[in-house]
């Protein structure tokens, strides 16, 4: 009646082992560290960089507790923040002798002390939020007028091309702020322009006003289109920030929209505010230009002449100069996708996909410039570098472009990542900045975990006193629930915040509530005269329905918070929902496994240790204790 089959005990044992293993990393804490990553796509972090970092630390007699190459960055761990700061300065001097043109990002960070044997099975601690770990908080204001002006520039260029294709002769196009102004010499031309805009530019609305013998047309974005441009600008900036912040190695950064034109960025564990600002400002974009192959251009490229007027000099990755014309044919705004791959000769390449406008321009440019060179220039932090300058062999249509040349597979992947990240859709300004020190975060952690621990201790004391051995079983199930909850959060790499700790304390209360229902149901059966074995069996079976109903309703509320909440509310909801699921398993499956293991083998069981069983009809009490 009260015996589990072997497979159920095996499930409990395996779950317990997994829970202990994956919750253990949270006990080892974090080490102050210095992280070195690439500041430009042309700079690589490899074993040579690791050696240079070790030499820089050796010259300053700084011994890291661990230094290794991890995922494209070097991380050196130290036993104190003092050594961490000294190491940062030493590494910065060695790797970035020219502070105006740094090749590496040298940032302060905090990394977990998880032992290698735990890390080898994928065990890692939970991420800690800004309120627990410390870090930096930024509020960024997106320059919406700049986004609208950029959109107006694109529309003005497209409109000029469309009028030329339709052979509509106008008196000129210019942009004033976010308004596109056109001039028409007569009413027929003005009507043709209005019809073309109505057919091909649904986002524009046109107002015609007489201007002497001519007509002036002012095209502006419709309100709905302007709102869509602003919304897209914020979304693109958020995507770009996500890609940029990856270089800092920040665990679970918070990047979210606040209001119509603001973005909140929280970087837990980042101690270097200046470096974080530098990363937030980094963008990469693409420009396609024709190479200046005139006599003056070739002389400048060989170093025997000056750069001609209307051209600029950029360097390839191997340091070779390339003279390109100032006119920009295409930009990264016309890019819809960038993926690393291989060309026809199985050499690493980057495959680009252009939008409709970009595909049309690229087809025309390649048709008109066969046997000429075209440079593909990657800009980062305002500095351009020629990725490749191939010769145009034939007209290229379909909107698919291939960048290939002297690049490795890693370089192709990095270039594709930077191009996908793109540039900011609109400039941003930091309007609020806060730094939360690790000491404050440490204090929050201690207070939060103390509340959970003391709550656990008080509950255990009450349960063991009031329910005796069944209280011990309930307390062990409660401890199992806590271990399982921490393990699941760690495996999911969830971010724990102060609201999450509050949800953890709430989960303990809800978990013990299920055991109270079970214990009281067993007592009720004993009062009704049932045998101990029958009382245990009926108590667990009948309490299950009530436990399920109460937890399902709580789970529905938690899911609602998870769907509609944001920030701290979502952090609370995640822990709350997981805590409900783990408490149902621990309270019903685990605790009954303990009871079955202790009492199930006793065929002639006369009493159980569940405290005092009151019989109201007799006015007395019967102590059911071993």
TrEMBL record:
Keywords: Cell membrane, Membrane, Protein transport, Translocation, Transmembrane, Transmembrane helix, Transport. Residues 234-293 form the Protein translocase subunit SecDF P1 domain. The chain crosses the membrane at residues 452-469, 476-494, 547-567, 573-599. SUPFAM superfamilies: Multidrug efflux transporter AcrB transmembrane domain. It is found in: Cell membrane. The keyword Ligase does not apply. Pfam families: Sec_GG, SecD-TM1, SecD_1st, SecD_SecF_C, SecDF_P1_head. It is a multi-pass membrane protein. Part of the Sec protein translocase complex. Interacts with the SecYEG preprotein conducting channel. SecDF uses the proton motive force (PMF) to complete protein translocation after the ATP-dependent function of SecA. Forms a complex with SecF. Part of the essential Sec protein translocation apparatus which comprises SecA, SecYEG and auxiliary proteins SecDF-YajC and YidC. This is Protein translocase subunit SecD. It comes from Hydrogenophaga luteola. The lineage of its organism: Bacteria, Pseudomonadati, Pseudomonadota, Betaproteobacteria, Burkholderiales. The gene is secD.
